[in-house]
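tmp note - Mechanosensitive ion channel MscS domain-containing protein
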Amino acid sequence: MIFPVILAFLENGKDAIYLPVQVFENTGKGPTYLFFRINLFISMCYTIYVMVSLFANNILYIIIWVLNLFNYELDEYTIEVIQVINSTSWCWKQSLIALLVFFSASITSQPYEFGKNDGSYKYNIITMVLMYSVFISVVFIEKFFMCFMISEIRRKEYRNRIWDINYKTFVFKKLAAISEAAPGERKELAETIQPDFDPGFYLKYNDLKLNSVEGAETVAESIFGFLEVRTILYEDLEKFFPDNHKEVYTYLAESSEAKEKDSPLPITFEDLKTRAVALYKERTDISRTLQSRDIVINKLDIILMAVAMYFGVILVMILLGINYSGLLATILPSMVTFSWIFSDTIKEIYNCFIFLLVNHPYDCGDRVVIDGEELYVSSVDLLSSTFTGVNGRLVFIPTSTLFRAKIHNIRRSGKQFSEVGILVSKTTSFDTALKLKDGITKAVSESTKSFSGEIYIREFRAEGDNVKISFAIQHQSNFQDIKKKHDRRAEIVNILEREMKAQKIQYLNSYTFSD
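out:
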């Protein structure tokens, strides 16, 4: 605006100070006035763009500052809404810029009058700016709804899993950082490194190279290598994690077979490598799950976007006084015909959305049992899902078929029971079976932490020349990891054989397992 102001003073002298008033009142004349008005409008547009962009880019800080000003305590719903406002900032920023540009054009030119098109290019351009603002505002409403729904799904369905994975990853990240530091700096570093605020929406610490089985093993090797130790003692964890060493030890020592309350066993390299590989698989599963869920939601977004665009056009026509009855008369018969022809398909797509987003029976990586067949979920799409059988065979199942299928989700199950049947001498009494159960319970409680200690006799009956006893034994976890499940079965067999020999019970070398 420097050159237009100088030119105005050179042309009009002191009367140039009245040019802004003349622009706002639309009373000026002459080329100098026109040049000044155009440059003023351009400057206002640029200022609007810069100010609104700065406001949108810093909306998180601005909202939090305002809430703190009024001493408002942030809760999870408030944080969620703030995150959604920030993620939809492009839409409302564009709509706000277009609206303010429309008002600026109306102020610096002849005031805009709705429905009174004089056919000039100026009126048509300003009208298009207003239409764009209204249309983008409708799109913003749709995007806000979609982002809020995605946040709700992540908050309710995935947040605890993401929290847990991020916490475990932080443990490895902190161990890696401490191990790479000089011995004299490790204590200070242990007190300095703390986990960041985690809303539980996204995976964090992606710089830690847990991107493959080999990478996970390398992370474990580097920790032991830089620490120059063969085992990590409980006392070391107290130094590295002064506030939560018990939780960290419980997590890292999970694979140790024995547990001693008075003198905790050290963490071996195999323990740490097992946890690192398991963490890599967890991160991979949740990443694939979130990607599959986003694919389904993006397809829903496209459908809702088309609906929002249609209503946006109608709304613009209503606001501008355009006769839209002819347009509706043309479109509605086609829409009715389309919906009648594809009614079954539309209903199926709707049911697929409800099944995957609301019922949400499985995620990628889950071990499920569908109509009696054990499968692992490989990928999830809107119209079909891909599974992998226990023998590695790929299975494609349409989502519509899964509506009526009986689905057991192993990963989401709590502590599970497994049944083991043994054949003993026909002279074995029920009292002997009860003593055997008590011996198994004591052995399980003292020697392993794979089982909870809850055991009962499910079956005691004659079978041929023998007696069959079936014990139901509760595990400490579910059967998502099939290898661990079979390892625990081996533990059960060893305990059974040891106790039957100790109680001098004659038995056949036969064991039947069922879940």
